[in-house]
Amino acid sequence: MDAVTTTRDVLTEKQGLAGRLRLNRPRALHSLNHQMVRDMAAALIEWRDDPDVRIILIDHAEGRGFCAGGDVVAISKDSDGPDSACFFFDEYRLNHLEYTYPKPGVVFMDGITFGGGVGIALPCRHRVATERTVLAMPETTIGLFPDVGGGRYLSRLRGRLAQFLTLTGARLDGAECLKLRLATHYLPSERLEEAKQRIIEQPFRAQAVLDELSEEQVPEARIMGNLPKIDRYFASDRLEDMLETLDAGAAEGDEWAAKEAAVIRAKSPMACKVSLKLLVESPYQLHFVDEMRMEYGIMVRLIRHPDFREGVRALLIDKDNSPNWQPTDAAQIADADVDAFFEPLPAQEQWQPFDF
Prior knowledge:
With about 350 residues, the protein is an alpha/beta fold. It has one domain: 2-enoyl-CoA Hydratase, Chain A, domain 1. The protein has 16 helices and ten strands. The protein has helices spanning about 35-50, 70-75, 80-100, 115-120, 150-155, 160-170, 175-180, 190-200, 205-215, 225-235, 240-250, 255-265, 270-280, 290-300, 305-315, 335-340, and strands spanning about 5, 10-15, 20-25, 55-60, 105-110, 110-115, 125-130, 135, 170-175, 185. Strands 1-2-3-4-5-7-10 form a seven-stranded mixed sheet, sandwiched between helices. Strands 6-8-9 form a three-stranded mixed sheet. Helix 3 (about 80-100) packs antiparallel against helix 14 and helix 6 (about 160-170) packs antiparallel against helix 13. The radius of gyration is 20 Å and the shape is globular. The chain starts with a strand and ends in a 17-residue tail after the last helix.
């Protein structure tokens, strides 16, 4: 085993024929800070042309949860300063580096996989879910949108699942991730260490190892039973239309529609509208680099909108769950207000990937 490079919050090591990235911030559910993003990218760049590294393994070193996302509390404290934009610039570089990486990646989404955790997981060729997996993109709760490539990944789901998952922040379990192809394999958590060790020893058999250790009887993917309702209630690309349709369903006695309408009304109306437009625009971004450039332009504007700081305050700092959105009514947001978030940044401010 090669020496482990230890930083405060992420471990990088070469082990056998594998390069390992192990999130190591258990008290924060391995939320990504700026240094973690930089360290992961640096390791991947170092291993990119290393003939002794044939595969990349990504997991967490200890504690529960895989990755709860980005450290938005720290980001919100400097949302008007340059550091916040720099975090997303570098995070998106990491996401793009993974997406275009010439060597296969295996990620173990064992536990909470939110936001930025989804961003480092979904570019991997092999994505392992377990009975402890909880995957979500809950950004509209804090005034943001499903970034880190979320527009690309979600907009390619069947039917209107993208709109439902984006607006509600609904949580998917491991079986649901597998059914929706967000995960490629479903393993019992007690088999993970065996899977990792076998892949480290025989990286060329990664697919076969995961196939051999996968659970034969996967639990029911409960979300599939709600697909007709999701397609019906979330058919429009306008937030007001969706809420009106959900309210009509609730008036007819549909408790599911009433619950989801209430969930959406608790989110930032501006973030919801921006997110819906993202899902319309993302399929037209031909390459992942185009997606990242668009998302970065949206993000640097949205973190300066008052809803971001207010959402973080209400959910994560004061924890009163009573955000004061600006505005509070979706009908007060004009299409032009939303379109402004999608305007290209000046050339000198635009996001760029690593240049190899």
